[in-house]
Amino acid sequence: MLIRNAELNGRIITLRCEYGLVSEIGDSLVSQANETLIDAGGGAILPGLHDHHIHLHALAAAKSSVICGPPQVANIEQLERALKAQAGSGWIRGIAYHDSVAGELNCHVLDKLVSDRPVRIQHRSGKMWIVNSMAAQLLELEKYTSRSGIECDGEGRPNGRLFRLDEWMRTKMASKGPPDVAQVSRQLASYGVTGLTDATPGNSVEEMQLFGRAIDENRLLQRVLLMGDMALPASSHRYLERGAYKILLDEMQLPNVEELVEAIRSAHEDRRAVAIHCVTRTEIVFALSSLITAGHHRGDRIEHASIAPDEVLPLMREAQVCVVTQHGFLRERGDQYLADVELRDQQFLYRGKAFLAAGIPLAGSSDAPYGSHDPWLTMHTAVERSSAGGKCMGIHERLTPEQALALFTTCAGIPGSSPRKVALGEVADLCLLDCSWSVARTRLDCRNVLATLRDGELIYCR
Are residues 113 and 258 in the same domain? Predict the structure, then answer.
């Protein structure tokens, strides 16, 4: 592969990729026989982007799901129309529900909207599904009233609200397996994404095999770092690597601190970092205190850090963690945050500059399908920090375009480390733009991606 007329560090160069590496960089290189040639027309050449927190199978499933929350759905009448508009006679799968639409849903509310088909709707937080009565019967909820996660009413009957039971639901529904990831993988490639960290906590050997097969069949075009449970084995696949042990914290049901510390230590002994889901003040303090007690391991991560007040920054430094956050939520959910989040905490939402100023490694991600999987939208929001309604959220936390780009160009295993470089001998995971960086930095728009290379091979070309 030979790329001509590409801008690298402000200079127009020609770059050659061989055997998966950047093998030559010069002012003018002669093309070889049978060598693929791309003329960049002066466009910038960047390291391929890496989304440090995504849920790939859920993103693929979302493509055939009903959006049940803002901005597409704002009230119960719109929710009813959206559900009833679905063709067919089987399950209706909804996503992105928020309580601002119709309050706290349960099976009785859903029955009034749809009673002749099984319905399951996922809350925007990702931690809860709500089902109607027909779905509850198919799942046989009456048999499992003592199961943790199945909420019951005052009479001990399931009310259709299911917490953290995704795997159990798939088993009960006799799922035919996860949806095909080919479409979303191609779309990610068109954004310049060459690598993904799948942060689904239940990932096990089965998911590792599924991802490996999808890569081998060219349906999954990106490298994958796979988080998962403690049973997740090491991988020998060239493009698939075992990642951190994922730990979910829920402020309403925090684990015993000694048990959490022991789980962290066990992961470290297995040479694995931990990634701890934290969205509230309480969760982040609990997680950091446990990490400090357990001891440091390179690559330990705090996922989301949705609310990170100043007092937790020294704890983050002491725990030597990196933060993987989602600035894109400020645009997608910002107007609702301004209504729901306490005024004292609004300044601490999805911070940027404060983490960097405190010396805390920071990386970016989409958390798709719970957020947009377009990394350029996330970068743009990290710079502008505006909600969809035009409200500025934490102007003091704004990043420069270069800092925003760096959120997606650091090493997969050590998020927030030094950004990867386009240089001789480096892996040829590349994102080629159709304009110079001086222009692209003012736009931060996925439409400027011209081509994407993984390991020196084209996975997207416009």
Answer: no
Q: List C-alpha distances in Å: 72 to 67, 82, 97, 128.
A: 7, 9, 10, 20
Per-residue pLDDT tens over the stretch 428-462: 999 999 999 999 999 999 999 999 999 999 999 99
- Residues 341-384 have pLDDT tens digits of 999 999 999 999 999 999 999 999 999 999 999 999 999 999 99
Domain, as residue range, for 157: 65-172
Distance CA 347, CA 401 (A): 21
Q: Look-up: residue for tokens 């990642």?
A: 243
Domain edge (last residue) among 146, 172, 198: 172
CB neighbourhood size of 182 (10 A): 15
User: How far is residue 135 from each of residues 106, 114, 156, 361, measured CA to CA in Å?
Assistant: 12, 11, 18, 44
Residues 295, 193 share a domain: yes
Give, rounded to a whole angstrom, the gap between the first and last alpha carbons of the chain: 16
Q: Which residue has the tokens 């709707």?
A: 121
pTM for the model stands at 0.93
Answer yes or no: are the C-beta atoms of 28 and 39 closer than 8 Å.
no
Decide: helix, strand or coil at residue 361.
coil
